[in-house]
User: What shape does this take?
Amino acid sequence: MVGPLNRKPQPSGATRRTAVGLILGAPLLGACSSVQQSFGQFSNPFSSPQPEAGPAGPQQQPLAVGTGQVKVGVILPLSAAGNAGVAAQSMKNAAEMALAEFQNPNIQLLIKDDGGSPQGASQATQQALGEGAEIILGPLFAQSVPAVAQQTRAKGVSVIAFSTDSSVAGRGVYLLSFLPESDVNRIVDYSAGIGKKSFAALLPDNAYGNVVEAAFKQAAARKGRIVAFEKYGADRSAAVRTVSQSLGQADALFMADDGDSVVAAADALTAAGVNLRNIQLLGTGLWDNPRVFGSPALQGGLYAAPDPSGFRSFAGRYRTKYGGEPVRTATLAYDAVALVAALSRTQGAQRFAAETLTNPSGFAGIDGLFRFRSDGTNERGLAVMKVGQGGSTPVAGSPKSFGA
Assistant: This one.
């Protein structure tokens, strides 16, 4: 087990979070009475706009931050157009914030712009490795991960990427992202624990739905049985009709889609004559959306997501430092930098070895516990949230340790 970090003093009222494996995120502050709901929104990782690189490729100048001896490559689409570039800048800020908040870190960040393209990611990785990077943080997009891995595996260097597509994980490539599989396992396990073991499911027929389907079928078979399962495309009427006919045999209905789509599915079920108050509704982190909170049909629904208090504290510090709001994925960059800084301090020559990164005790970051599996995917300790008017409240907190 890796010991806790030494952190800079925090504002009064801060409390120290429980140590598991390694403490990364700054201590949580007292709960805020009002937080913009947009802080907690998780977008569908499989339907995000594709990055658009400029015609000349990456434009950002190379940047080194910090003076430590351990060099860490950070690869982000800083010059990509639209939301990709905005997210990259926010994640860069968070990475630098982690370095500033960690007490005397012995790392130097080699920040590289990949322009949002696999070619740019390959070039950025080559540059970082040439400058002595011992580990690579990034890239953000799934299509760029194999290009990075091709460079790093030849050098025996590990990668901690931010993609949500678990198919790009693998030997030496670990994903520090919010994977749908963790959401599914947490919500199915919780619902079984409160006696809901006969499941119906209504899922989108897309890449996200396919990933969720595989995880749900495994989890439901482990905890109970599936009495109805349907997927829908642009027209969900047939799937809704089929599922509605079987809900009398189910005590939980699992719907995993983004805010607009899950509200539309719930409204379609209601229009088909289903009283959704007679069944426990279940969802994933995509439910963390104002549209869901405002839907009368989804009130009382349960979904799995990181405990929002960690992000509230992080966002407050980010606003103070940068004068703006962080993107939701900014915590990934913060935790990645905090992790490598801590491992550099405590683990010596084995700091980025596979057995170090896959410590089964895991690590405690901004969004709670996480640990890397040997296949490169991750497991997160998630809270269970209950949908209410105007927001959500936790009905089960994040675990303090990973079970056996």
Notes: Residues 1-21, 23-41, 43-49 have pLDDT under 50 and may be disordered. The chain has eleven helices and 16 strands. The first strand starts at residue 63 and ends at 65.
